[in-house]
Design goal:
This protein has helices spanning 3-16, 21-36, 39-54, 63-105, 121-141, 153-188. By secondary structure, it is mostly helical.
Amino acid sequence: MSLNSDLQKEVSILQANKKGVKAKFERFAEAVTRAVGTPVAFFVALLVVVVWGITGPIFRWSDTWQLVINTGTTIVTFLMVFLIQQSQNKDSLALQLKLNELIACEERASNRLIDVEDLSQEELDVLKKFYVKLAVLAKEGDDLHTSHSVDDATDVNHAKHSYHEKRRQERLERKKQHEQTNGSSKQLNP
């Protein structure tokens, strides 16, 4: 059985089971994360703090009055950490998958970068040094459109620079021909 058909079966099973606790929690976390990231949510929280502050003299700045805001904010913060982390995990995975697709479809990109998020910090530091070298090469090339592969950075840099230089020359040649054509037609029709 092929890997693709196995994946399709798993997706079908997951879609059929969208009523489970995990799926409900995911939908709840998405909704709450979206809701608390709005200006309305901010102003509601601000209003709660302002009302709490205004009621201070009424309760004579008591320990209970202070405990109410401390307990409330602690509970909300504690629960929000888990909801936001769940949403961030999902967003991060979706972004990684999109980037993996881009790497997989680009013929000159190294497929070794597809699972780069699984590398150790030390391995990532080594890879970063490589990309710093690529950035230096790109600056030397003075070309914003140049990108590189892990396997053949220098060759790809030269190939892309040559390609863009050739395209620039072709544009200049077309412009020159266009100007000559327009100039000769103006001479014929004074």
